[in-house]
Amino acid sequence: MDLFAGNKMYINLFILCISLTHINTTIELQGIFWEVRxxxxxTADGYIDGIIPMIFKQGEYYCRNETxxxxxxxxxxxxxxxxxxxxxxxxxxxxxxxVSQNKAVWFPDDANLINKSHEIxxxxxxxxxxxxxxxxVIVRRDMISLPYKLSRGILGCRQILILILMLSVIFxxxxxxxxxxxxxxxSNNFIKGTITGMWWSVVSMTxxxxxxxxxxxxxxxxVASIWMLFSVILGCLITATLTEAITSLKYLDIYKKEVSxxxxxxxxxxxxxxxxxxxxxxxxxxxxxxxxxxxxVFAALMNADVTxxxxxxxxxxxxxxxxxxxxxxxxxxxxxxLISMNLSQSAKNxxxxxxxxxxxxxxxSVDQFRKYCHTDNIHIDSIFDMFAKNNLYQILxxxxxxxxxxxxxFDIWNIKQQKSKNKEILKSLxxxxxxxxxxxx
Length: 441
Known about the structure:
Elements: H1 2-26, E1 29-34, E2 41-42, E3 48-49, H2 51-63, E4 69-75, H3 78-86, E5 104-109, H4 117-121, E6 124-140, H5 146-156, H6 158-179, H7 190-205, H8 218-247, E7 258-262, H9 266-273, E8 278-282, H10 285-293, E9 299-303, H11 304-314, E10 323-340, H12 345-356, H13 358-369, H14 383-389, H15 391-438
Helix pairs in contact: 2-12, 2-13, 5-8, 6-7, 6-8, 14-15
C-alpha cells in the first residue's frame, strides 16, 4: 500500500511537470515589430537587441524561466508596420502567417491615432512600456554658422543703426550751429558745415576721437557731452544685440514655422498642439531629415532618444547638407506595445509580475540603452570650409582679388606712363643738346 501511494505521488508530480511545461509553451508571445534604435534593432551578428527586448528578457528573469516573447515578424519600416496594422490582413496569412491572434504583440507603437478602430478589429489594446521626455530640433548646419548669425545680428541692429544715422545728422547740425561763427574748423556754408559736423559725430560715437574737429564754445561742448553719453548707450545696444544674435537660439523657435515630423506620432501631436508649429507629415525619420536638407521645411523634429542613437549619421559633415541638433524641447512621448485582449491567464500573470518589478524590468532596461543628445548653438567652419562652402567669404575673397588685380593694373599703367614720359623727356633733352651743339641758340 505504501509503495502504491509513493508511486502515485511520483505520477502526480510527473503530470504536474508536464502541465507546467504545457503552460510555459503556450505563453510565448509573437512579436510583430519594426526596427528603430534604441527601442529594437538587429545587431551586426543578427541578434535582436534594444530597450523592448531587454524589458521582456528582464520579465523572463524575474517572472518566469521560459521564453516570454518570440520576434516573429520583422517589418522593413514604420509605414509598413502601420499599413499592416490598419489593413484587413488576417492572422495566419501573408506577413502574419506565423502569428496567431491571441499571442500577437505589436511594437514599438508610437502612433497617436484618433481613430483606433483597427485595434478593436484586431482585438488589441495599448500597453505602455516606457516614455521619452524630449523632442530634438534638427536644422541645417548653416543656420547656426558664425557668418549667418553675424548677418542676423547686423540685421537685428537695423533700427539702432537708423537711429544712429538720424541722431548723427541732428547732432552734426547742432554742433555746426554752435561752432560755425567761432570755430574756423567749421565752414559757414550749411551743407559743408553739417557734413563736417556729421563726420565729427561719427568719429566721437565710435570713440576714435581723431582730434581734427574739436568744439571750442561752451554750447558746442555741452552738445558734444550729450552726444557722447548717447553714443555710449547706442554702442552698448549694438554690442548686446550682436552678442544675443550669436549666442542665442531664439530665432530657432518652431512656433508658427513649418517642421517635418513623422506622421500620426506623438511627436506630430506635440509639435502641432503643444508648441504651435505647422507640422508637415513625413513617412519616416529619414524622410523628415530630407525635407530639412531640401529646405522645404524650417526644421525636423525627432524623438530625443532616437536622435541620440542616430546623431552621428544626422551630423555627418560629408553630407552635402550637414545637419545639427540645436535644442531639446520638453515633451511626453509614449512608447507602447499592442497586446491581444484574449491573452492567456499565464501571460496576464507575467505582465502583472513585470509591473511589480518596475525598476528592475522597465527602468533598468531604459537606462541601459539611453543616450543623451549633444546640442550645438554655433558652428565655426575650418579655414578650408570657410572659403569652400560659404558664399560670403567667397565674395569677400573675390573682392580682395579684384582689388589686388586693379591695384597691380594701375601700377603697371603708371609705370608705362612714367616710361613714356621719361622717353619724351629724354628725347626733348637730346633735341636740346643737338640744338646747343649746332649753335642754333
